[in-house]
Amino acid sequence: MQANIVLLPGDGIGPEVTAEAARILTAVADLGGHEFQLDSHPMGGNAIDDFQNPLPPTTLASCKEADAVLLGAVGGPKWSDPTAELRPEQGLLDLRAELGLFANLRPVPVFESLAPFAPLKPELLRGVDLLFVRELTGGIYFGPRHEQGDGDVAYDTLVYSTAEVERVARVALRAARGRSRKVASIDKANVLASMRLWRRSVTEVAGAYPDVEVTHHLVDAFAMQLMRSPADYDVILAGNMFGDILSDEAAILAGSLGMLPSASLGSGKQGLYEPVHGSAPDIAGRGIANPIGAILSAAMLLRHSLELDAEASNVETAVAAVLDDGLRTADLVSEGGQAVSTDEMGRAVEAKL
Ligand code: NAD
Predict the structure, then answer these.
(1) Ligand 1 pocket test, candidate residues 16, 78, 277, most atoms within 8 A of CB
(2) Catalytic position from the list 160, 188, 233, 234
(3) Within 10 A of 57 (CB to CB), how many other CB atoms are there?
């Protein structure tokens, strides 16, 4: 197949990990006889420096035309003044809005060989394979009223419409069909009217997916259950803020932030794929960043935007095999252990493929 993929390497370790994800996409194309056009564009802090715009119009236009977009990470101390007029993360928010991406998929893969790096007992991690589906463009972060006047009162409003809940619930239910057919929907329906609407809307949509078991959980009790028995869950569906918090909580199960991929999807096949981590300025430029989050993001791109399921699974299997062989970047090495570089890890995954 032919595909047009835009790369947004970004700042800090972004270019380092994106190069390895691009290496894997190129290998997948060569092996399968596909033609992937990979074009890099400026975005984030580097685009502020060069174009006075974190999302230059030419970058946005290329993303809109692409089949998929793969991002490294944006930001860093140089651009972190909160009062600055131009901020790298504004580019990312604008890009999500422009591409109409309303569902954020964050898998938390737990590779058995990495269990010692997670703070939970290894037996609790056996068989854990979570997929968070977080609503991305609604809820309290985007409510119509955000106010802090001069007084002692401030407001943020939590609003959800039936349509907003239903479309993200469908993403979770469809994803569950390709997995273990279980969705845990998270809310706070005992206290919040918006969350009663959430539960009602999820229940209504679930009626069309009788083969998927949907359970409802209050967010506070669920936060505890998630650490007590993570293997009990599969797809976890949540609103913007609860999904944000719970997916970060669950990230520790994977052993390192550098391991985690993500996808932001809309109503079509196009998506934005990026590792969960930031630009890691503390290790940037040293060639020691873990590229696996970026490589697994490329696997999500193959699956969701290009519908190359077998190729996506092959990349995931290659990553697992490399970890089983004992290869570790610095973030996964205990004191005194031997670490490989970003580029050695990428080459090892390529060789396994
Ligand atoms: P961070 O994720 O960049 O780093 C947190 C810690 O994890 C650091 O110690 C870092 O070295 C380590 N780490 C992260 N990714 C790693 C990898 N692939 N391999 C090895 N170690 C890794 O978070 P932060 O320090 O809070 O933020 C740094 C900058 O990144 C900030 O400017 C922030 O705004 C930005 N940020 C961007 C995104 C994004 O682009 N989507 C997301 C989060 C943070």
Answers:
(1) 277
(2) 188
(3) 9
Return phi, psi of residue 11, to 5°.
-120, 170
CB-side exposure of 201: number of CA atoms within 13 Å?
A: 23
Q: What number of helices (H) and strands (E) belong to the chain?
A: 12, 12
Per-residue pLDDT of the chain (353 residues; tens, 9 = 90+): 999 999 999 999 999 999 999 999 999 999 999 999 999 999 999 999 999 999 999 999 999 999 999 999 999 999 998 788 999 999 998 999 899 999 999 999 898 888 877 889 989 999 999 999 999 999 998 888 888 877 888 989 999 999 999 999 999 999 999 999 999 999 999 999 999 999 999 999 999 999 999 999 999 999 999 999 999 999 999 999 999 999 989 988 998 899 999 999 999 999 999 999 999 999 999 999 999 999 999 999 999 999 999 999 999 999 999 999 999 999 998 777 899 999 999 999 999 99
Cα-flanking dihedrals φ and ψ of residue 334, to 5°? -75, 165
Element (H, E) at 214: strand 213-218
What three-state secondary structure class fits 28?
helix
d(CA 41, CA 43): 7
Phi, psi torsion values for 24, nearest 5 degrees:
-70, -40
Residue 289: CB within 6 Å of ligand 1?
yes
